[in-house]
């Protein structure tokens, strides 16, 4: 089950439609091998959300199925392990993307960070959410934590630059944007 989870992670990070489908298949395999594997359920959620929001229409059977799978997987992850940070991050993602319930999503992300303060995904998701809600200074601080946790992730620098641009802090935004390029 763990090997299937790792293979799912590999394909989920490739961010193409076909690789996202492969990731979901591997997470499904991990769950088939160990139906109580809360982390596999939690990891399936962002892959399913990615597929549902970027590659398929919700008007299609595949879109509706993957959306339902994401919701059910988040619920299962939380039921199986209510102290798993990734389960709360997964539920937060469902609340943001499908339900537009930002207050509950923020509570889920904050719970994930209580459980795992160094959790890159929960920190980044919270930074994104609070920034979209207009709390840009908080978003900047959180995104800086993300970068401290993993300084080589280009998307983290891009996100930080975006928040700084919205705050009209252009010099800092420029430095954040080029930080991962070595220029």
What does it look like?
This protein has about 180 residues and is an all-alpha fold. Helices cover about 75% and strands about 0% of the residues. The protein contains 10 helices and no strands. It is globular, with a radius of gyration of 17 Å. The N and C termini lie far apart (about 40 Å).
Descriptive key words:
mainly alpha, 10 helices, 183 residues, globular
In DSSP terms (H or I, runs of 4 or more residues), the helix count works out at 10
The helix-and-strand class reads mainly alpha
Distance between the termini: 42 Å
What are the low-pLDDT stretches, counting only 5+ consecutive residues below 50?
A: none
How many strands in all?
0
- The amount of helix comes to over 70%
Query: Shape from CA axes?
Result: globular
CA radius of gyration is 17 Å
Can you lay out the helices and strands and say which pair or pack?
Blueprint: H1 2-12, H2 17-33, H3 38-54, H4 61-80, H5 85-97, H6 102-115, H7 120-132, H8 136-149, H9 154-166, H10 170-178
Summarize the structure in short.
The chain is an all-alpha fold and 183 residues long. The chain contains ten helices and no strands.
